[in-house]
Amino acid sequence: MPASDETETAIRERLGRIVEALEAKSLDELKDCYTEDVVSFDIEPPLQHVGADAKLRNWANAFASFRELRYELRNLAVTADGDVAFAHGFGRLSGTLANGTATEGMWVRVTYCLKRTGGEWRIAHDQVSVPFDLATGRGVADLEP
Question: Is residue 30 part of a domain?
Answer without folding.
Answer: yes
